[in-house]
Amino acid sequence: MAKVGSKARSQHRCSECQHVTAKWVGRCPDCGSWGTVDEIPMLTPISGGVANRAVAPSSPAVPISSIDPGVTRHVSTGVDELDRVLGGGLVPGSVTLLAGEPGVGKSTLLLEVVHRWARSGRRALYLSGEESAGQIRLRAERTGCTHDEVFLAAESDLQTALGHIEQVRPSLIVVDSVQTMSTTEADGVTGGVTQIRAVTTALTSHAKAAGSNGAAIILVGHVTKEGAIAGPRSLEHLVDVVMHFEGDRASALRMVRGVKNRFGAADEVGCFLLHDNGIEGVADPSGLFLDQRPAPVPGTSVTVTLDGKRPLIGEVQALIGSASAGNPRRAVSGIDSARAAMITAVLEKRAHLNVGQNDIYLSTVGGMRLTDPSSDLAVALAIASAYADIPMPTTVVAIGEVGLAGDLRRVTGMDRRLAEAARLGFTCAVVPPGVTDVPAGLAVQSADNISGALRVLRNISDNVRDNGGRR
């Protein structure tokens, strides 16, 4: 009778691209990533033995129709803007990753979340590997987030952290951050690829083991200088929800952007304002991106952009300087410089505006970033308004993409954009042709190309002037 057994041998696999090599290398030969190649054991059968045997499952597979959909439901965090991104709240037994740059306000937001969670009668555990419990208490007092059902533990060892979870038995766990946690059951330094994967796998397995009766876990993640989440790419695959916390240090505005969500839409955006005494959600952020003034001035234009599924009002400001003898200067803030240069060239070539020799300065209001092509028309009208010294009425919005041929193209979500403009009191919209779904109270002026849009702008301005300046 042939002997059946197995002997162990090892291979090395890249955690980024899953490329397998016979020996360890510092850099993956396939994708070029550094430090992502790890050893994986393999079992090779001996003498024709079978290495993989069937094992009786502990619980049988059941038809999907027999599973009660109400077993797993969203539980509100108490922070409406965060619930919007999560799809209604946290799901018991789920793992959420919140990543952002240092100092953007991740810990402040999550301290507000655990406070509101505890205030609703549930228990929360805040595990910190970056700060002591005393430091967290100081911030909690400053932001008014102290509650007896919020438990704090300054711990960076995974096994001890799991012990805290078993002892406290919370329904919400915050780990700040996953890069500072380590386990003795995995090799590598703290914050390395191997450690991060091992810690995340253990926490995910702990959450999934309890299922719908388990605690929801929020992991805080660091980002690299390029803005990507630090650690292996498989980290984003292990968790259920991935969110990016974004914000400029020069502005109080913060945005939580959904990247992955197994329980809801993955393109939602939540807006917050970070203050010295805490953080608050902004349910209607459009007013933050508008410059409040009593009368229209040349060089301004308003558009409606879509950030995920959320329509936001944004204002573009343009300033035309004197003609330069050498190379004219182009300075932009909040707008893609390449698209701004393209729109300037289209205005000069297709609309015959001699703006190429002038210095051009473009900016948005409130630190808003306009990356959506739908803002092209607003940028073009702002430049033309500044060049001709004709003010654009403040009740007019411009929505449309500008092509190199000077044509105007429709953009997605036009109905939501126009509905948001009508809700905020705008009475006229300059759009490409073909728009039919127009909300009540909003008049639409269509233009086939950039020259037609400039004529519409002049006609609207003339009508305002003839009516005695009423906008």
TrEMBL record:
Q: Which InterPro entries match?
A: AAA+_ATPase, DNA_repair_RadA, P-loop_NTPase, RecA_ATP-bd, Ribosomal_Su5_D2-typ_SF, Ribsml_uS5_D2-typ_fold_subgr, Rubredoxin_2
According to the record, the segments passing through the membrane are: none
Keyword Coiled coil annotated: no
**CDD domains (alphabetical):** RadA_SMS_N
Question: Which residue range or ranges hold the RecA family profile domain?
Answer: 71-223
Q: Name one GO biological process term.
A: recombinational repair
Q: Where is this motif: RadA KNRFG motif?
A: 260-264
Spell out the molecular function terms from Gene Ontology.
ATP binding; ATP-dependent DNA damage sensor activity; damaged DNA binding; hydrolase activity; zinc ion binding
Q: Which residues form a coiled coil?
A: none
In the UniProt record, does the keyword DNA-binding occur? yes
Question: What are the alphabetically sorted keywords of the record?
Answer: ATP-binding, DNA damage, DNA repair, DNA-binding, Hydrolase, Metal-binding, Nucleotide-binding, Stress response, Zinc, Zinc-finger
The family database entries (Pfam families) matched by this protein are listed as:
AAA_25 (PF13481), ChlI (PF13541), Zn_ribbon_LapB (PF18073)
In this chain, ATP is annotated as bound at G100, E101, P102, G103, V104, G105, K106, S107
Q: Where is this region: Lon-protease-like?
A: 359-471
GO cellular component terms, alphabetically, are: cytosol
Q: What does this protein do?
A: DNA-dependent ATPase involved in processing of recombination intermediates, plays a role in repairing DNA breaks. Stimulates the branch migration of RecA-mediated strand transfer reactions, allowing the 3' invading strand to extend heteroduplex DNA faster. Binds ssDNA in the presence of ADP but not other nucleotides, has ATPase activity that is stimulated by ssDNA and various branched DNA structures, but inhibited by SSB. Does not have RecA's homology-searching function. Plays a role in repairing double-strand DNA breaks, probably involving stabilizing or processing branched DNA or blocked replication forks.
Q: Which comment does the entry carry about domains?
A: The middle region has homology to RecA with ATPase motifs including the RadA KNRFG motif, while the C-terminus is homologous to Lon protease.
The UniProt entry, under PANTHER family, shows: DNA REPAIR PROTEIN RADA, DNA REPAIR PROTEIN RADA-LIKE PROTEIN
Family membership, please give it.
Belongs to the RecA family. RadA subfamily.
What NCBIfam families would the database entry show? sms (TIGR00416)
Protein name as catalogued: DNA repair protein RadA
Q: What is the lineage of its organism?
A: Bacteria, Bacillati, Actinomycetota, Actinomycetes, Mycobacteriales
The UniProt gene name for this protein comes to radA
